[in-house]
Amino acid sequence: MYPVKTPWLLKKLYPQLVWDVNHDSRCIYLTFDDGPIPIVTPFVLNILKQYNARATFFCIGDNVRKHPEVFQQVKADGHVVGNHTYNHLDGWKTNNETYLENFLLADELIGSNLFRPPYGRIKKSQVKLLNEAKPGLQIIMWNVLSGDFDISLKPEKCLDNVIKNTSPGDIVLFHDSLKAFNRLEYVLPKAMEVWSKDGYVFKTLP
Q: Any idea which residues carry the catalytic annotation?
């Protein structure tokens, strides 16, 4: 099980991480993890373009290496990119030295001051190491988890998750991955339509 809306206690335990943005603005911060890859990432870019929306893509370094043309298209379309490690490492299961090396390897390709830990799992000691290695780094979490990665989740329920739980200033997490595509392909166009009618705008993380 996983919470769709991030519990306040988790935010309190990790106050140095970014969980949401300015709630005074009628803005949603869409984020996409695990790309860039063919088919799925271009699909996302096409939907975003239809709504003049900007988003933040947390990229896996090895996918950037394999698909540089998709990575360049993300940036060319006006979106922001962030680091998601080179090999999608679970911080809880990885020693600090390996984690830092993997982050820096991805940073050589991505070059961003935004980072999201895969699975949202990172030790406080790793937070300290990354901040020392890259001053000014912002570690971005989320306030709404779509659940698109969950292969047991019906697409309709995934849509329900994001529509009912998203409010101004929220960082919403989707995945531009093959695993998530069955739900993402259904949810993203419908969610964008609903949010747009409700007067939301979509910006990159500041």
A: 33, 175
